[in-house]
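Z., the sequence and structure:
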Amino acid sequence: MEHNGGERARPFIEAAHVRFPTLIDENGITTTVLGFKAVPNGILVDADGVVRYRKFGGFSVEKAEDVGAVERFLRGEDPGPSPAPKVPYQLDSTERELIETKLRLGRLLDSVGRHEEAVQEWRDALHRDPENLVIRKQIWAARYPEKFHPTIDWAWQRAQIARERAEELAAGICGPDGCPIPAH
């Protein structure tokens, strides 16, 4: 997913030495259609448009199991079972629609240069779906573009998510199913 266009994604694709077709989703449509909340993802679609394998979050061409699934798929074999997605809570259809609307409005505002208003719409969406890493990364990319281009700072992202979730949990922003029970 690259909301700033395919040219911003090209260096990542080239660095990974990708030898297969790649979809660049500039509008966040795949998150709605496929229902994922984390990136990076690996989704293998056959010539008939059938999704044969999906791994939401943590997919990497540096992981042997992910490369193996892609190689089996490219040879025409069964890529293997898709890992079960981690679903921390369920949102009802009205809540999902509101979140999707806020995401679209944020993208529209961002495209016309109203960046602060865009970030606020995304923050509102994140408040309703706090485990949605796709929304969180969209905010980060707008706020901290240097952490995404020309290279992605994974260490900063891991530290940032830990900081933000700790602050949110302390403020009672937990998700529709409530806050986790403290381990102490």
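The first strand starts at residue 42 and ends at 45. The first helix runs from residue 6 to 15.

Let me know what you think.
H.
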